Amino acid sequence: MSDQVSAIVLPLISLRVGRPQQLGNTAATEPLARAWTSAIHKTELTEAVWLTSLNLNGDEQADLRNHGGPDQALCAYPGAHYSYWSERLGREMSPGSFGENLTIGGAWTEAEVCLGDVFSFGEALVQISQPRSPCWKIARRWQQPLFSQWLQETGFTGWYLRVLQPGRVSPSDALVLQSRPYPEWPLTRVNAAKYEQRHDLSLVAELAACPALGEQWRRKMQGRLSGALPLNDDANRLVGPNAD
Q: Which residues are within 8 A (CB) of 10 and not within 5 positions of it... i.e. 6 or more apart?
């Protein structure tokens, strides 16, 4: 491992878990106020917890069709983005605002980490599997219908990690980079292949062939290449029932 890679340590601002809750108002007629179920509200941990191959103990997902599974065992979000969002939304955005398990400290963002990066995390070993694809629930959480779209447009998406080795982790642990097998794939480039450069099918094909890419994103890229999926298929995910 090069000296540059060995120097990469991602500190934690917070470690969080949450279970699905019924939110909103069942009698509401305005879409953003309607009832919905999500585990986006997570509680900060102060003690060590066991990380399994699927999640942290005490953490669950409401929509198992689109969330959860081995490639989405942990969700991480860079704390460096919080000041930007606080200013843009005109309200205080603090760790946990995006329903993430790990709020990453320092200046580490999607530009500095790569698809396939392997980190030690306490007793566990984890690997970046794919960026997070923002969905309508973040917009509803913050009562801003365009918020999920803004996340996608800025590339301030955060990312998911799979668990290569389960183990006990704690809020005082940092993510320490162990290997970087795909330095050509910073997450900014991964996001670009899915969004603003989606018409560059050679780039899409290159991403689909990366062994570290999560299966959800791989199927999406392969569907675009085969023509089974449209190149621009984000509307339902970004807006969902918020537009009903």
A: 104, 105, 106, 108, 113, 119, 174, 175, 176, 177
Render 53-93 in DSSP notation, one character per residue: SS-BTT---S-TTTS-SGGGSEEEEEGGGHHHHHHHHTS--
Q: Which residues in the chain land under pLDDT 70? A: 1-6
Contact 64, 106 (CB under 8 A): no
CB 79 within 8 A of CB 103: yes
Does this model's pTM top 0.85? My answer is yes
**Is 14 within 8 Å of 171 (Cβ atoms)?**
yes
- pLDDT number for residue 65: 80
Q: What domains are there in the chain, each with its CATH number?
A: 3-243 (2.40.33.20)
Name residue 168's beta-bridge partners: 50
Quote the mean pLDDT of the chain: 94
